[in-house]
Hints:
Blueprint: H1 2-16, E1 38-49, E2 52-55, E3 57-59, E4 66-81, E5 84-101, E6 104-113, E7 116-125, H2 127-130, E8 133-142, E9 175-187, E10 190-200, E11 213-223, E12 228-239, H3 250-255, E13 263-274, E14 282-301, E15 305-314
Antiparallel strand pairs: 1-4, 1-15, 2-3, 2-14, 4-5, 5-6, 5-7, 7-8, 8-9, 9-10, 10-11, 11-12, 12-13, 13-14, 14-15
Pfam family, one: Phenol_MetA_deg
Keywords: Plasmid, Signal
Signal peptide: 1-18
Amino acid sequence: MKKKLLTLSLLGATLLNAQVIPGINSKGGAMTLPEGKFKMGIKNIYMKRDHMFDGTHEVTNREHLDATANATLLVAKYGVSKNFDVRVVLPYKHIEATAKLGPNDVAIDNQGVGDMVVMGRYVVLPMKEYGYQVSVGAGVKLPTGSTDDGFKKAPPFAATTNTPLPTQMGTGEYEYKAELGVSKVINDTMRVDFNTMYTYRPKAEHDYDFGNELSYDLSFTSAVTDKINLGIEYNGKYNSKTDMGNDTTPALRQRLPFKAFSGTVGYITPEVEFLPFGKPKIHLGVGMSFLAHYNLSEYQPLEKQRFVCRLGYLF
């Protein structure tokens, strides 16, 4: 009995000193960095698309599409003032895909720096005063990625045509973002974070319409020891209908399975975060997102799982 009580008291003491941080996909909820603090992070997202969907149904993969995408995001954040920080996200993307368009084999292998995002976030209702935190933010995506990569193996009727814009590193156009975040620390070992972001997209290169996006991420994380956080998230988004404009060629536009996402989709993401020193100065997290629901606007590919990992360091 004494041993049990001692174990429980040691566990309680450990958890009292535990640190719990926002979920891996939650964009930090409403949190900002303290004034003068600088943080660097790397986040990697891997997905495979070899299934086709239409509406609420999985359908036959007519073009035998087999695609993978790997995005590595370099993230820098700086606390400008007590309630305001800025962040810069620079992606490096690698997209590989094969498909069959009629009797013709098609292959894509594009990689490079993508479009950079610059955001600012301001705390409207601080945690210390209200017991929860609310912030608002705004930013812009800059057209820093290339839009002129060609096919690795092109069909004969498009031998000199670039690959479709959704497979390029960038879109060739600015995009504008606005966000709302809410964070609540339940106790010393539990927290909830929510973030929603709206992205307005003018028509991109070749009059490609990527549509406008509303994303929403809700995460619950808990410190099970002073060095381990466990979490679960819901990650969803809605994207308005898209249009290929005059991208590629008319023949390709009729047959291509490489389309920009449009519709509604949601994922559930269990995750684990390791804080080697019991503080968020350094943290390493991994998570796996599983497709939970979808309702797509047209016939298009969608990943059933995503693997996510991140590493953060606070200077």
